[in-house]
Amino acid sequence: MADTNDPTGQSSSSRPQQPGAPPHPLSPGSWPSRDSSRVPFWVYTDQDIYVREQERIFGGPYWSFVALECELPQSGDFKRTHIGDKSVIVMRDNQGAINVVANRCAHRGIELCKEAFGNASELMCPYHQWTYDLRGNLTAVPLRRGLRKQGGMPDTFHLDEHGLHKLAVSERHGVVFASFGQPPRFEEDLGSTMLGYFD
Questions:
Q1: Which pLDDT value is given to residue 20?
Q2: Which of 50, 105, 142, 170 could form a disulfide with 186 if both were Cys (CB 3.0 to 4.6 A apart)?
Q3: pLDDT tens across 162-197, in order?
Q4: Are 123 and 89 in contact (CB under 8 A)?
Q5: Tell me: the pLDDT tens digits for 109-132?
């Protein structure tokens, strides 16, 4: 992408650097010293920053928008979406509560849901058919006790210890937020000023 402030139209990375000259303010690793409000282009494509963003922001204790309640009017309704680069499933259970889980089977990490929207009574992994309820709890494992006394899960295996990764969920005025971390209450996190705009 060209630097729009450069009359030559060249990007900061394509312009030749003069020996002994200070780094161009938009070159990788540098930040404009006189204008902290301007984000250099390299920030948007730096792999290290991307990885840290995913870990600290989208994987950290912060709320992310995932759905509107009106998108899930009935029990069993679900929506597949993302928080950062992680796929998640937003679903309404039989008691009317909205739950958000990671879209990965707890067994081998296979993606459970491919559809963007739908309705289901349960989630079943297409690989080994591990089955989960609408709260993300593991309810069934095929051949759990083996076949003819061969194979199966050990006696120490308990269904309630192998559910899907459940996210924190907050709802306000029909808007649903979720977090992989342990964020403060949504109202506290947003603060009184921003909450006033939100409401």
A1: 55
A2: 170
A3: 999 999 999 999 999 999 999 999 999 999 999 999
A4: yes
A5: 999 999 999 999 999 999 999 999
Cα 182 from Cα 184, distance rounded (Å): 7
Question: Token digits for 66?
Answer: 């995932």
The predicted structure's pLDDT at residue 21:
52
Give the pair of three-digit tokens for residue 149: 């006394």
Per the document, the length of the chain is 199
Burial class (CB in 10 A: 0-12, 13-18, 19+), 26: buried
Q: What gap in Å lies between CA 9 and CA 78, rounded to an integer?
A: 47
Cβ burial 66-80 (10 Å sphere, 16+ → b, else e):
bbeeebbeeeebbbb
Among residues 157, 76, 145, the alpha carbon closest in space to that of 113 is found at 76
Residues 6+ apart with CB under 8 A from 154: none
Closest CA to 122 of 153, 152, 143, 101: 101
Residues β-bridged to residue 80: 89
Section 60-72 average pLDDT: 97
